[in-house]
Amino acid sequence: MITLDAELLPIFLGEARGYLETLELTSAPMEPRLAAAVGLRSAAELVRLPELVAEAVELERLLRAHEPQLALGALARARTRIDALAAEHAAHAHRIAAAPASASAPFQSAFDADETRMLHELFLAEATEHLEDIAAAITRLGKESGRRAALDELLRKTHTLKGAASTVGFAATAEAAHALEDIFASLRRGKQDASVLDLGALDAAVQTVRAITEVGTQPELTAPLAQRLAIELGAALRRGQVVVSRGDVSPDAEGPQPDGSGTWTGADPGEGARFESQISWAAESSGYARSDSNASWTGSGSEPRATPAGSGEADALFGEHDRGLGTPRRREDLPSLRVDAARIDELMLGAGELLFDRARIERRVRELGGLRDEIVRLGRTLADARAEAGPGVEGDRLATLDESVAAHARELARLIDGLGEDTRELEQTTLRLQDGLQQVRMMSARFLFARLARAIRDVARRSGKQVELVTAGDDTRVDKAVLDRLVDPLVQILRNAIVHGIEAPHLRVRMDKPAAGRINLGARTEGDTVVLEVADDGAGIDVDRLRAALVAGGRLTEAEAAATEDERIVAVIFEPGVTVREHTDELAGRGVGLDVVRQTIARLGGEIDVTSTSGQGTRFTLRVPLSTALTQAVLFKLGGAVYALPAANVAAGAVLPLEQGRLPATMHDAGQPTPILSLHALLGRPAPDGAEVNALVIEFAGRRLAVTCDRVIGPREVVVRSLGPLLAPLALYAGATISGAGKVQLILDPATLCELAHPGASARRGSVRVPDESGPHPAPPALPPPVPRPHSADARRILVVDDSPTVRASMARTLTAAGHTVDLADDGIEASALLAARRYDLLVTDLEMPRRNGWELIAEVRARPDLSELPVVVITSRVDDAARRRALDAGATRLLLKPAAGAAFLAEIAGLLGRSG
Amino acid sequence: MRNVIVFTTGGTTHAVELRWVRDIVRLGWLTPIPGAPSTIAGAVQVRGAVIPVLGASLLGGAVSHHAAATPQAGDTLLLVDAEGTQVALSADRIDEVTTLEEVAGDPTMLVGRGGLPIPIVDPPALLAAATRSIAAHVTAPRGAVR
Known about the structure:
The complex is a heterodimer. Chain A is built from 29 helices and 24 strands. Chain A is an alpha/beta fold. Chain A has five domains: about 290 residues, no CATH class; about 100 residues; about 180 residues, 2-Layer Sandwich (Heat Shock Protein 90); about 130 residues, SH3 type barrels (Roll); about 120 residues, Rossmann fold. In chain A, helix 27 links the parallel strand 22 and strand 23. Chain A is globular, with a radius of gyration of 32 Å. Chain A starts with 7 loop residues before the first helix and ends with a helix. About 15% of the residues of chain A have low confidence. In chain B, the strands form two sheets. Chain B has a five-stranded mixed barrel. Chain B is mostly beta strands. Chain B has one helix and ten strands, in the order E-E-E-E-E-E-E-E-E-E-H. Chain B starts with a strand and ends in an 8-residue tail after the last helix. Chain B has a single domain, classed as CATH 2.40.50.180. The interface between A and B is large, with 43 and 37 residues.
């Protein structure tokens, strides 16, 4: 039984296999093979596998003793152990995937659902960036000059991606990144000739890694993609399939496994014949057929009949990356551009932000109007004074003044009119831009249906039901952003329909129903709304049982239940915690319930209804907007309410010290004094108590400020709603968004906050009122900037340095949850600055980082007398001995393997802090 | 004769003509809007749109003290459309939908059951008052800003 951290194991396995690969090259020089044996031993020590450690020690001894034959024996034993571990891990991983989320990997249990979601979002954003950089660097491989630099970057990027992926539990992405890294490593070592690479196939492989990342953590979804990646990588190396999945292909993947033993077969060009046969197998069994040398895959497909013949362009837009879905349109018919869907989304987000800008400008125009009115009033006062003064020097002077004021008022009025026109023009342009982008993003419902068809097939097979899918309105065009967000809710509804709705075949036959259940999936547009219907011909919802459950749960009395119409009883299934199931089962009990489905739909500004007839089936009707203006916002809690800030303006999170309940007036942020604004005071909430308060650092138009809050929830993609004409003059707000529960959440305007914190930076009339009874803060400006808090035994300050935002966020969560105060730095340079500014009890650092790497940072720390005793923990996924030795030589106290998250990690940290304190 | 909804809020009875009323919904969650004048009780979401809820103080006249209390979840909201702008009025209860006569000589009052006069809510005037109160609030002297 594996007692290892499930997150750690795949990384270890990947790295161990790398060592075996080196060790098995009997013709290779001794030095790298010895290093590999040492590496294997260290890695096995880190993950506490004593038997493997023993094998590695023996291997090392035999190699040193020049006993190649005996060494091969030890090698075979090590290989067997590692394969056994891999097989156990694959079975374990499958159990994790099949179990409800709560029973998932240790990583999940360490974070609440919000935090996990935030980490996933962070990771997805980071992965996208890495993959883009990787794709860009691949194009540079084609040129002899700069190939080495490109390879270095590729190695670094794939390595970082692997570390981040394993940290957040994206095992398939970690595996895929590792496969890429292996290829780049062999190119870098000169084992593979870069000039014969098929860069097109390599690029396709990177896109597949992206697809693997997008489908996330479910092995049944990632396994087929991993298989495609193997084929693409093989094509890239021009030598057949590279085994990427390493034996942990989900048992649910269809057809025979290409290599059930899970051995690494991609390294030796001598096995060409075997690769060829694997390619042809893969082509047959997964519906891919190789069409040209650029490794683009098309297929006739063996999808259910709902699967459409689609266009290549829309396929790309869908982000599905499933080239098995359709046949390519003839290129000469339609001149078209393949645009990455993420690019369009980016543009869309940008256009969404224009909405904020427009609202802001409109408000300023209104303020200018007020100013003009005041000037006109001033003019009248002047005219009165002139009349009083009568003729004479004083009168003449006043007359001149009056005329000049009147002229300025006229000029101002002219400007305001012009500005008003410009704003209306801007509004029109913004709307046209959004419409245009939405049109580009529109895609057929058939792509949604094809995705759902796969889910239906999968659930039906696993639940032993027969299901026939009938679709209608496949050509209904809907915004991709909306379609993407409908997948999860619809999959959940379909799961329920198959598992709880549709009866087993033998029962159906007994009821004179066809053995195969039928699911109708329809889409149509009604004005600005798309209506999606999911209807099954199963058992329907048992209203009486639901009634009984509501009475039993104390939600209704017997009399109320009896008096409530069936429709209203059925609608209760959307409320949290309602179930008529006696037991949760693997298939429908997993993940989200119908309450979450309704929340998702509500967040899109839509509605969901259900009707059901006992014995005849259930019909869900979803109404959602055809398209939606989405933008990124950072949500935070303050005084029991949730507020949002446009994510583009949120630079960082911070923790501010409070001294006797008072906020300092400024904080030091990246070396700059940054004003602090108490949102508690601004929003009329009681001042926070305790020793410190959370804050967000806002950046707007080059100026920064920190605003207080109770708790940062994290970044979210939100639909921006206007506050309407009545509330628009409230400058504090840029708009609102609707929470999943249907609550209005206000979006604060960073421009206004910035002006409040930097008064005088731009002259502005008072348009925001701060309650006069604002409590003990904002503090008088005389208060000095915060000084480092005195050390106490339990609250320790830890500096975490890593170039991966995912790893940083994950560590921050873990360490903060354990009661430590954590500061974060992107690289060695930032870390040095922080180390100079305040005292830390512990430094946790990565090794591979841009600008100043971990080794350099450690050397610098050790060179400083005041930091010579600082415990330094190196967290790395590099297990090669040279790198480790260099880190220890530089002065690292401890080396830990990524991902560092669990209790063992915290115990290490606690041990080191104890030692230093 | 006017077709009206008669409702009670804060212990006072009002009538609003049916032609203004777009919908009657139950208040799920009221989001307070810090920095808004007391004429705005908060904002609610109705079918994806953000709708301001007007404070009872705007209804003017004989408003009792507890009328100033914030609307609660479960309260009834009257969605009124005043010249294209939707606002919500909170009601403790809807009394009836009926046809009432004006009080002779006073078009702002109707004759209710038992001859009691009921003030008519005029949504455009209400909206104008709310708009004015917000404008006055945000253009308050600079001294109010810290």
